[in-house]
Design a protein that fits this description.
Distance between the termini: 29 Å
Pfam families: adh_short_C2 (PF13561)
Family: Belongs to the short-chain dehydrogenases/reductases (SDR) family.
Organism: Erythrobacter litoralis
CATH superfamily: NAD(P)-binding Rossmann-like Domain
GO molecular function: oxidoreductase activity
Strand order of the largest sheet: 3-2-1-4-5-6-9
Keywords: Oxidoreductase
Radius of gyration: 17 Å
Length: about 250
């Protein structure tokens, strides 16, 4: 299926590894021009080099999304380099784990405010061409988990923000959706570490998924690319759960 994304001007945060990396690749393969960021400058340079060598139009920058001033500055530079913005993906996260005020603040600034600031900075560009926005949330924000952590709370807040802001910017022709991956395994990710450090928890999680396996970053990215594309032109305010049936709640 042609996603009709050739020439799309896309911006994504956290694109050097895992789900964000695969979403970035899907957008590039669909014909989009891409500006991306991550905190690790070496990883950014490596991705940019690889993608441009494959003939893609991509430009990366080392940015801490939790630094509001630096983040807004990069968003402006990215939109200028692209000549606008038709698609914005907020993927980067402060990560899981418990902690005191500092950890709560980090997840708030990166997971939630990264989305808010990104949309506010790019809204005019997105409205100019009927753009689309995707926030990467998590099933950790939908159900109780054995680990109490700020990550879960901020991912839940992200879904509420997406739903409510979709009603506002929808009047300008901008679509806003969320995607909530379940347990997804990829090199260097949490589930790869859980498999080693918490094997009982890992196996119990696999057992509760009807398909008997964890998801892949590629599977999440395929769904994300569709939601961002014009083929999903009548979908907004949705939180798409991509978890192989792991969650059991009924959404009415």
């Amino acid at each position: 299926m042609d996603l009709e994304m050739k020439g799309t001007k896309a911006i994504i945060t956290g694109a050097t590894r895992g789900i964000g990396n695969r979403i970035a690749e899907r957008l590039l393969e669909a014909g989009a021009d891409l500006a991306f960021c991550a905190r690790d400058g070496d990883a950014v340079e490596q991705c940019e080099k690889e993608w441009t060598a494959r003939g893609f139009h991509a430009k990366g920058a080392a940015v801490d999304v939790g630094d509001a001033e630096a983040y807004r500055g990069w968003l402006a530079e990215a939109a200028h380099w692209l000549g606008g913005c038709d698609a914005f993906v907020h993927n980067v996260s402060g990560g899981g784990g418990a902690g005191g005020d500092e950890k709560w603040r980090a997840n708030f600034e990166i997971d939630l405010m990264g989305a808010v600031r990104g949309l506010e900075a790019l809204e005019e560009h997105l409205a100019a061409g009927g753009g689309s926005v995707l926030f990467v949330s998590s099933t950790a924000g939908l159900e109780t988990y054995p680990f109490v952590q700020p990550y879960n709370v901020m991912k839940a807040g992200l879904i509420v923000y997406a739903k409510q802001i979709s009603q506002v910017v929808g009047k300008k022709g901008v679509r806003v959706n969320c995607i909530s991956p379940g347990a997804t395994i990829f090199p260097g990710g949490n589930w790869e570490r859980h498999k080693v450090n918490y094997p009982d928890y890992y196996e119990a999680t696999v057992a509760e998924i009807p398909f008997g396996r964890l998801g892949t970053a590629e599977e999440v990215a395929d769904a994300a690319a569709f939601l961002l594309s014009k083929r999903a032109s009548w979908i907004t305010g949705v939180n798409l759960i991509v978890d192989g049936g792991q969650t059991r709640r009924v959404s009415l």
